[in-house]
Specification:
single chain, 238 residues, alpha+beta, eight-stranded antiparallel β-barrel, two-stranded antiparallel ribbon, 4 helices
Length: 238
């Protein structure tokens, strides 16, 4: 009888541990971050379709001169970078508001343009402290040893000579994304708008966990896709 009691007690402990592990995992699930674009959706749609104005019948804004656009621009503190991970249950977004960078615009010579940016990995936030601590820990992103992730542009697609204020312009940025000390060549497909003396840039690229020596997290309850979407939502001041 004592042996049976011990067996049932052990089974209960194992079951309780499994339930606790599931509850712990379940508490770490859930998307708490909504992506906020710096460019209104209708502006992006207009740029993608080649429409001159954001909405049909809408009067175009004022012409923007090369003098207004050319020169050095700096990333404002309202800028954000998002990382999105898709699991078998949901897509989870991480936001990083600690963004710095520059863009030297030259409409006359795309080859002369330069750009670079950096984010502080300690500021990565999914709205779930337990999950964020795990992601930034030494066995994953190791934010203590690799405090910054960077992107350095190697080339820009040619920008149009004539811009209209408030109208999105497509631009591709090819360069090197460095995460955890590992470099990856990427292309950000982007839109940029000049409005009110500022540039607003929204761009995305897709990388994988393996690109940076990481293994996509998974367990018996949840699988994670290998792809990661990186999204720039930048406001720049001259």
């Amino acid at each position: 009888m004592k042996k049976k009691t011990w067996i049932w007690t052990a089974a209960g402990v194992v079951a309780a541990g499994a339930i606790a592990a599931f509850v712990l995992l379940n508490n770490s699930l859930g998307n708490n971050v909504e992506i906020e674009s710096v460019i209104p959706a209708q502006e992006q749609a207009a740029a993608n379709s080649g429409t001159a104005a954001a909405n049909a019948g809408e009067t175009a804004g004022a012409a923007v001169t090369a003098e207004q656009l050319n020169g050095a621009w700096s990333v404002a503190d309202t800028s954000k970078v998002y990382w999105s991970v898709t699991t078998s249950q949901e897509t989870v977004n991480f936001v990083n508001p600690s963004v710095t960078g520059t863009w030297n615009v030259n409409l006359d010579d795309a080859a002369a343009m330069t750009g670079e940016g950096a984010i502080e990995m300690s500021a990565l936030d999914s709205g779930n402290g337990q999950r964020d601590e795990h992601v930034k820990a030494a066995d994953f992103l190791d934010a203590a040893q690799f405090p910054q992730s960077t992107f350095v542009v190697s080339s820009f697609s040619e920008l149009p000579a004539e811009w209209t204020e408030g109208t999105a312009v497509p631009v591709q940025m090819q360069g090197t994304l460095t995460v955890k000390g590992i470099d990856k060549d990427v292309v950000f497909d982007s839109q940029v708008v000049y409005s009110g003396g500022q540039l607003m840039l929204s761009g995305t690229t897709t990388v994988t966990f393996a690109d940076f020596g990481l293994t996509s997290p998974h367990n018996i309850v949840m699988e994670t896709e290998n792809d990661l979407e990186v999204r720039l939502e930048l406001v720049l001041n001259k």
